[in-house]
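Handoff note, outgoing to incoming analyst
You'll be picking up this chain. Sequence as last confirmed:
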Amino acid sequence: MPYVIDHPLAAHALTHLRDKTTAPATFRTLCYQVGLLLALEATRDLPTQPKSIETPLEKIDSPVLGQGLVVVPILRAGLGMLQPYTDLFPSVSVGYVGLERDHETAVAHSYYCKLPPLDGRRVLCVDPMLATGGSASQALRVLRENGAQDLRLVTIVSAPEGVAAIEKDHPDVPVITAAVDRELNNQSYIVPGLGDFGDRLYGT
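Most recent structure output, in case you need it:
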């Protein structure tokens, strides 16, 4: 089952993301706010290791991050979720997987892939909409083929059908999301959803 974040700011921001009158500039700000809360949740269990430091008063052992982090947005909409990770984790590595969904068949095809080393790192695949699950499942498969073992999928809005597809294809990959909506319509769009995320993010 997916982990759905429970925070009043996430609920507030998601309401305005859903609102069809929200302008792209505001949409991007709201995306950042929800993405920040999701980033914190997706990294809650990152391991730490002790580091010896000196405070102004004494020497202590204090925790620092003990595992490398890679974030991989699925292009193009996933780019809207990237900035919270680069703000929070200065040493984060960023990869990209380009997938585009055919609006007639709802099947995604790959047009770009550029990844840093993944082995031994926490790898977060980010895509705002988990609809059929086809694109996310394909991206996760690419990440596994390139050495990823500690994988998470982070989304803003998910459909039950997409969650089920990830549980079937990648049962060991946790899904962290801000909402699980009712269903997909016959065009494979999430309802109530918020429309085409990339179009609303970039005003296209």
